[in-house]
Design brief:
Length: 424
């Protein structure tokens, strides 16, 4: 009865359009009050216990670092450098969009930050250059998903803190899948550019590439400092967030000289608002997850899935399909927090590598961020492009190729385990 009330009320509130955090919170509290004989003090205890975590402190720091880098001119310089590298390819500006996301992903760790920062620069430029609004939004939304896969990654930090896996190892495991996603999206861009006649830019001389590289040097150095420190064991992922903030502030304020004192208040305010979203979802989802745990939903689901087949490859495909369907209707972070504790027993039951499985889950969940009706990156890109989400049909081509990459990552574990085995 408890689970029925929980799921029915949760889905009903989502259909009404209530934000996912409040839908989870109201459904969870209603289930506890009506069916469980437990003290109501469990609610605030779960709320605070879920966010009282040292690894989770990385979340606000990386979000703040992303805002500092955007205001500090780092994003603009990365765009200019990426443009000299791939602007001459078919669909040059769209290719630049994808490559910039790959470069920026080594800094911010947030898909929403990538979509906002890069989209506000690239989408107007693409529209002026003759690209359709829907295609511009599709490229921006799809490429933003690379951000939480190529480290640093806020989503991976949360996954690691929930499963007690090494965040540094998870970071290393995400590098190759993230690069694969980037190249796959560039292939889709090339296909659309040839079909629709999107022009390429004039190939720039090598001296121009060197000049733009010098201008972007301090921006390009950021991922090396952040990742090098984490993978080298110099500092933790949380401490890396602090380093990223300090680095972005110094570069933006004293080297590029684009951050002014009056900008700091707005940067801090915007970062605080953006931080509140994942933290609130995390807190509410912890109550939801606690109810699932007490009602032994994990055992029921594992037994149900295991009864379908004893072939681990078949079970892995079912899990991926489940995550893709869930991603259509539930925000990625909330879905992870709900389903990670539920699916973890499958990892032990079938002997899967937990690091490999973690990256599969992250990639599957991020695909949901660009699929309607709840694809947050799609809505951000659509708002910047001034186009209705229902008109963005090209996004499904990107989703299809992302699913292909996901299946490759799922069924070729070496794509995620090879690099960590060398570095660690």
């Amino acid at each position: 009865m408890t689970l029925i009330i929980l799921f029915v009320l949760f889905l009903f509130l989502l259909i009404l359009g209530m934000p996912v955090a409040f839908a989870m919170g109201i459904a969870s509290i209603s289930s506890i009050v009506t069916t469980l004989e437990v003290p109501l003090s469990i609610i605030p205890q779960r709320l605070f216990a879920s966010v009282n975590s040292f690894p989770l402190m990385a979340v606000p720091f990386f979000i703040l670092a992303g805002y500092l880098m955007n205001v500090g001119g780092i994003t603009e310089r990365l765009v200019n450098f990426a443009r000299t590298l791939v602007g001459h390819l078919a669909g040059g500006l769209a290719q630049t969009n994808v490559v910039t996301s790959m470069l920026f992903s080594g800094i911010s760790g947030s898909a929403s930050a990538d979509a906002s920062a890069i989209g506000s620069t690239m989408i107007p430029a693409m529209k002026r250059d003759g690209y359709s609004s829907s295609f511009s939004a599709s490229v921006t939304a799809a490429s933003a998903t690379i951000g939480p896969i190529i480290p640093p990654s806020i989503v991976i930090v949360i996954y690691g803190s929930m499963t007690e896996l090494s965040i540094g190892v998870l970071f290393a495991a995400g590098i190759i899948p993230g690069i694969m996603l980037g190249f796959a999206q560039m292939m889709i861009v090339h296909s659309y550019a040839k079909k629709r006649g999107y022009k390429s830019e004039q190939k720039v001389p090598f001296s121009m590439v060197i000049m733009k590289f010098k201008e972007a040097f301090w921006a390009l150095l950021a991922p090396i400092v952040i990742l090098g420190g984490i993978l080298g064991g110099i500092f933790t992922a949380t401490e890396a967030g602090v380093i990223a903030c300090a680095y972005a502030f110094i570069v933006g304020m004293f080297i590029y000289k684009e951050i002014r004192l009056k900008d700091i208040r707005k940067i801090l305010l915007d970062a605080t608002v953006m931080t509140s979203v994942p933290i609130l979802i995390l807190a509410m989802a912890s109550i939801f997850g606690w109810i699932l745990a007490t009602q032994q939903f994990s055992s029921t689901l594992v037994n149900g899935i295991s009864s379908i087949s004893d072939n681990p490859y078949v079970i892995l495909f079912i899990v991926i399909l489940l995550l893709l369907i869930v991603g259509l209707f539930i925000e990625a972070l909330a879905a992870m927090i709900i389903f990670i504790p539920v699916l973890t027993p499958l990892v032990m039951h079938f002997g899967w590598d937990p690091i490999h499985f973690g990256i599969v889950v992250v990639v599957a969940m991020l695909i949901g961020t660009v699929t309607p009706p709840v694809g947050i990156q799609l809505y951000i890109a659509a708002a910047i492009a001034k186009v209705r989400v229902s008109k963005i049909t090209e996004i499904w081509s990107f989703v299809l190729v992302m699913i292909v990459v996901l299946l490759l990552v799922a069924y070729i574990p070496q794509l995620t385990t090879w690099l960590p085995s060398i570095l660690f």
